[in-house]
Amino acid sequence: MLMLFVILVKRLQDIGERNAIQNIKKILTKGKDINRIGDDCAAIPIGKHYLLVTTDMIFQRTHIYPDMTPYQMGWFLIAINLSDIAAKGGEPLGVVSYLGLPRITSESFLKQLTKGADACAVHFGTTIIGGDIKETKEITLCGTAVGIVKKDEFMSRIGGNPNDIVAVTGFLGKAGAGFYLMKTRKGKQYSKDFFEPFPRMNEGRLLAQQRTVTSSMDLSDGLSASLYQLQELNNVGFEIKKGALPLAPSLRLLPTILSSVDPYFLALHFGGDYELLVTISPQKFQNTKKALQKRGVLLTAIGRVTGKKGVFLIDEGQKKVLENKGYEHFKPHQF
Amino acid sequence: MLMLFVILVKRLQDIGERNAIQNIKKILTKGKDINRIGDDCAAIPIGKHYLLVTTDMIFQRTHIYPDMTPYQMGWFLIAINLSDIAAKGGEPLGVVSYLGLPRITSESFLKQLTKGADACAVHFGTTIIGGDIKETKEITLCGTAVGIVKKDEFMSRIGGNPNDIVAVTGFLGKAGAGFYLMKTRKGKQYSKDFFEPFPRMNEGRLLAQQRTVTSSMDLSDGLSASLYQLQELNNVGFEIKKGALPLAPSLRLLPTILSSVDPYFLALHFGGDYELLVTISPQKFQNTKKALQKRGVLLTAIGRVTGKKGVFLIDEGQKKVLENKGYEHFKPHQF
Question: What pTM was estimated for this model as a whole?
Answer without folding.
Answer: 0.90
